[in-house]
Amino acid sequence: MSAIRNAPLQYDRHIESALSQIGELLKREYGLSKRTVGLLLLQTDTDIEKLVQKHEAEALPSIRKIVDETRSLYNQPLNYVIAMRRQQEATRLSSIVTTSRGKSGTGFTERLSRITMHPVTGSLILLAVLYLGLYQFVGVFGAGTLVDFFENTVFGQWINPWITGVAIRFVPYQWLRALFVGDYGIITLGLSYAVAIILPIVTTFFIVFSIIEDSGYLPRLSMLIDRIFKTIGLSGRAVIPIVLGLGCDTMATIVTRTQETKRERVITTLLLALAIPCSAQLGVIFAILSDSKLALVIWVLVVMLIMLLVGFLTSRILPGEKATFYMEIPPLRLPKISNVLVKTLTRLQWYLTEVIPFFIIASVMLWLGELTGVFNWIIALLKPVVAFIGLPQEAAQVFLYGFFRRDFGAAGLYDLHNSGAIVGIPLVVAAVTLTLFIPCIAQFMVMLKERGVKTALAIAIFIFPFAFVVGYFLNLVLTTLRVTL
Amino acid sequence: MNMRQTVLGVFGLGKRSGSCCGPATGPTENSLKKIAIVGTPNVGKSVIFNRLTGTYVTVSNYPGTTVDVTRGKSLIAGEKMEVVDTPGMYSLMPITEEERVARLLLFEEKPQAVLHVVDARNLERMLPFTMQLIEAGFPVILDLNMIDEMAAAGIEIDVVKLEKELNVPVVATVATTGKGLNDLRRRLAEYVGHPECTVTI
Fold first, then answer.
1. Which among A163, A175, A424, B100 is least buried, having the fewest CB atoms inside 10 angstroms?
2. Nearest CA in chain B to A260
3. Domains along chain A?
């Protein structure tokens, strides 16, 4: 079988005549058939017009005249007329090559698929997925049992004492020892956070996420959330990046490219930076709040409320049209173990290669900061801010970690909670503020790249005080109501 | 199959001048024959890419996951070729940024084969894009993917007849299991290796 020129699809005579006229005017090669260039020009494709403008601007006025004349012959837009003709041919073709045994219709998967998208049953399924998948598996098992074992036993009892012993024997200088095994040491802080706290959490999260992803549940979740979003006037396309943001906000910020208008991209970028916790953050927060169900509920409600409120307000304030949401819904299928494993491993590999160097660099910077006194200076600056929202002084360093990375800050909070320094109301306040707080450096870099300096900076400048104001009011409300957590 | 060389970035963009029947030039990186994978989101483009190149791109049952262009190399009939995975596109008229990226790639890189991957269950909705690609003069191969799910839905497609009607090669695959991939490679090799298109520039 080889490629032979086809008899092209014929459109109606007005369009055909326009195509041949345009074809004669075009002298240049565009890497596309003249027919296609003509069709795209008829549909006022701006990119193609720009190309023609660049290479043979003299032909453009005559072409525009032909396009206008042709357009006036139809009641519908030309792209609609052209698309209908093509679809007509596609329908004819597919009907002569396809035979259907009529087994389709409302099978079990079809019914299940509808249930997942229905506002009521869909919400219940979502709650079940969140409870079993995220809360029980990631929060209780991953961030609880596994982290406890790695942090307290593997690092706490074996690695840290051993490496500290080695360091004391071979490194004579205290200041240099601190680089490896001090409070901010590469091994005792950086690696131990990365391996003992973050690794078990993201591993369990990636397993759940891969299963959900492979089953085809995510697009259905998007449809479900879209229905909820629409009721408050938010556009549905924001759903895809937002759901992906639960995995990694940085990736999700890149995915905002799928959105059609600049307005939507800005809103979604803001929501991702503000209110969507990434997987590691989510796992840690589930783990530290799991002692008190009420604390967890408060956290979920506050963050969701903020997201809906900010989304609602920005979609009112920012000008522009709302885009319609259209999405292909792939079939539901049973996840394949091999797919899930490969996906989980690939994600882990990607995550670790990104996170480990970062945690090491962060440790070095913190060590330098402590050595030079800059660290204490920043902490001193942060202390009143932290006290303002009712947190103990030690929380200041958690926010400093949070500047580096979301998950680094979350790991710090975990550590602080573990040592009993922060419980009850301050814990919820810290969790909420840290969730809303500034995006991590990687995410901010992507925001700069995708949205431009002005928008990215505006978002960051808004988020920073906003997170603390929310923390302040949450603390005020909870303490006034004397909520016991 | 197991060449773990993924070339990211956009080298050679817009530098190629050969047509689909141009003779193979020297074996330098930039002159590798190129296969572009296109199609609507979530039809298995990335899985086909992985199968052809042996590299791993995050694959998901979720539309819109390939935003940037991914490049890899594949050995097809003993010849090293570059395989390019594009973001999903619904038609040659782009709406979103990622569709624009995909289209630009087709225009500027002039691949030797454009592999249009479709969901076999929704042929009727997928064919308009195939027809646009053929109309534009691209060397199209149509890949009916997910034929297992199509069969499960009780649908059958007469591949030979479709091939005759469209006048381009049509293959049937199940990318997730690898079914039909040998056939696909063979057809790609024939198509790219012995181009018999008669168009001259």
1. A175
2. B96
3. 13-92 (1.10.287.1770), 117-480 (no CATH)
Amino acid letter for position A275: A
Strands B70-76 and B79-85: antiparallel
Domains contained in chain B, CATH given: 29-193 (3.40.50.300)
Q: Are A470 and A436 in contact (CB under 8 A)?
A: yes
CA distance A309 to A265: 17
Q: Among B59, B107, B134, whose Cβ lies nearest the Cβ of A6?
A: B134
- Between residues B7 and A316, which one has the greater pLDDT? A316
Q: Which of B93, B99, B161 to mutate to test the interface with A (most CBs of A within 10 A)?
A: B93
Nearest CA in chain A to B119: A330
Alpha-carbon dihedral sign for residues A96, A99, A102, A104? negative
Section A245-265 average pLDDT:
78
pLDDT of B50-91, one tens digit each? 899 887 666 665 565 566 778 888 888 788 889 998 888 888
Q: Report the pLDDT value the prediction gives residue A124, as an integer from 0 to 100.
A: 92
Is a pLDDT exceeding 80 seen at residue A337? yes
Q: What share of chain A is helix, strand, coil (3-state, %, to 5)?
A: 80, 0, 20
**Residue B185 Cα distances to A1, A216, B77, B130, B191, angstroms:** 13, 28, 8, 19, 10
Residue type at position A483: V
